[in-house]
Design goal:
Elements (H helix, E strand, L loop, with lengths): L1 E4 L11 E5 L4 H6 L10 H8 L8 H10 L2 E5 L1 E6 L8 E5 L2 H7 L5 E5 L1 H11 L7 E4 L11 H8 L7
Parallel strand pairs: 2-3, 2-6, 6-7
Antiparallel strand pairs: 1-4, 4-5
């Protein structure tokens, strides 16, 4: 098993929602970019929701998030994992989500990209946290049981919190 670490959060004082994944997969770690696997639908969904032109340029993708007041991070700071599957995560240590939210009080809602992120966040923050927390279908290629259109429809809820 390989020890891996999360990236720094993408957030600023204008961020209104926080999207949390679990921890970057192999391709993301190689590229040092959130959701870098070409079959992960995260960036496609974000661009489609906001009617933005899809770009492969990572800096352009970050600008789209910032333009629409979206912050991005992971619930896990470090862990051991073989491969990229969340089910292979072991010995995880949590990111300091509460500290981040205290530093950026404009965040009004949290959206979890998948069940692993959501379950871990509940352990970190508890079930009665002061912000609304939503679990969205994972954009990972491992979540092949749900059609893209269904994922897109579910993800559109983030618009209501901006």
């Amino acid at each position: 098993m390989q020890k891996i670490s999360s990236f720094l959060p993408i957030i600023n004082s204008e961020s209104k929602i926080l999207i949390l994944g679990s921890i970057p997969g192999i391709k993301s770690l190689e590229m040092q970019q959130y959701y870098a696997h070409p079959q992960n639908k995260f960036w496609k969904i974000i661009c489609e929701i906001f009617d933005e032109e899809f770009s492969l340029n990572y800096q352009e993708r970050i600008k789209i998030l910032q333009k629409h007041h979206i912050a991005l991070w992971d619930v896990i700071d470090t862990c051991e994992r073989k491969g990229s599957l969340d089910s292979e995560i072991r010995n995880e240590e949590a990111n300091k989500i509460e500290d981040l939210l205290q530093d950026f009080p404009n965040v009004k809602a949290i959206f979890c990209n998948g069940q692993k992120s959501y379950k871990n966040l509940q352990k970190i923050l508890g079930k009665d946290f002061y912000l609304p927390i939503f679990v969205l279908p994972s954009t990972s290629p491992a979540n092949a049981s749900m059609k893209y259109e269904e994922k897109l429809f579910s993800w559109k809820i983030i618009i209501d919190y901006l």
